[in-house]
Structures are given as C-alpha cells and as structure tokens.
Amino acid sequence: MDWRFGDGSSASGKQPSKVRCPGRSLRITTILFIPLCLESCNRETDWAAAGAEYLARQCPDCASDSIIGHGRRRKQAHDECHDWIRIRRGICKLCGKTFTFLPRLSPPYGQYSLITRSQALHRYLGENCSWEMAAPLVKDPDRIPSPSTLRRWFRALDIPELGKQLSPASAEWESPSSSQRPFPFLRKMVQKVMARGRQGEIFPYSPCLHLLLQLRI
Q: Cα-atom radius of gyration of the chain, to the nearest Å?
C-alpha cells in the first residue's frame, strides 16, 4: 500500500508495497490525495462533498491518461460536520493498478479528519485545556475521541524529525528537551506556528490545521 499527493510525491518515499491476499491475484493499491484548494478550507465549503466526484485520469506509474472509475465506498471522517464521507476509487486500464482518492483532510486509515485533530491540538497545547476539555466537537456524539486517543495522536507527532521539516537549520530538534511537560517537540511546533499567526502571518485555515497539512499527516 502506498499513498501519494497531487504533485505525485510519495508519503513514504518508497515504491508501493505489494499485498498478497489468499485466493486473490497480486494487486497493488495506491492512495491518491485530492489536491487541496484554499476554497476547500472555508467553513462554507463542504470539503468532503467537493472531493467526492474527483477522479484523476493520469496514472502516476505509467503516465497515461488511463484511469477509469472503479466504484465508490464510504470512509469514516469524523468532525463537527461529518461522520462518514463518500470517496471514489479508480483503476488503470493499462497496468491494472487500483487507486483510492482521498481528500487531503482525511488521512488514510484515520477515522477522524484533520480538522478534528487540529482542534484537539489547539485546545490542549494552545489553550492549555485539560484532556477532557480538549476533546473536539464531532457530529456523532458517540464518537467523541477519548483522552487516550488524543494522547496517541500527539505521541505520533512528538518526534524531532517532524520539527526538522519546519526548521531544518535549527539546532533545537537535535537534543531532547529538558522540560518535564509532555510532548516537548510537538509543543514547540505548535508554539512556532501560532507565534507566526500572532505576528500577522495570514493562514488560509487555522494555524494547527496548517501545521498538520505542512507535515502531511
């Protein structure tokens, strides 16, 4: 399984892996993220509906305009306005590779949208809320993320390698922080991007969502 972005770059930097299923022929599946336009980030625009009809035609592997529709399916993408979203699948007529087209705000295998995760980041690290108060609003009240889910999200982001993507030349990511507060590297990243907002930098969406999109999470 591999996932790629609208510019053709790979999230893993590796060739798509091959998954062998019992009783089935070998099939390579690639996840393609739908390019995110600024209008899709406005609250007035439904980012899920805007991407539901998107179907790229050019295969990223054989470079031919040979992708055709290959059905639809539903995917969980919980946030304040969504619970399940519809996404399209495609297949290349020449090489037989299948594709899943995902909006940039819905990470692969994730049950919550990046909007939900950015709200949790902002509340916990930006507003110093408790774990319970940091839980973001979701459309389905039975799917409010638990404190343990929030901790798992934050632990996955609390690594210096992600900080280096924001400030490659900075030395602050080279050694562990002496602070005893949890998530020291993630805390620095959030503080940096929110400070840029306070200095007048205009973000087309919220600072924490901008951070997640920059890191391609």
A: 19
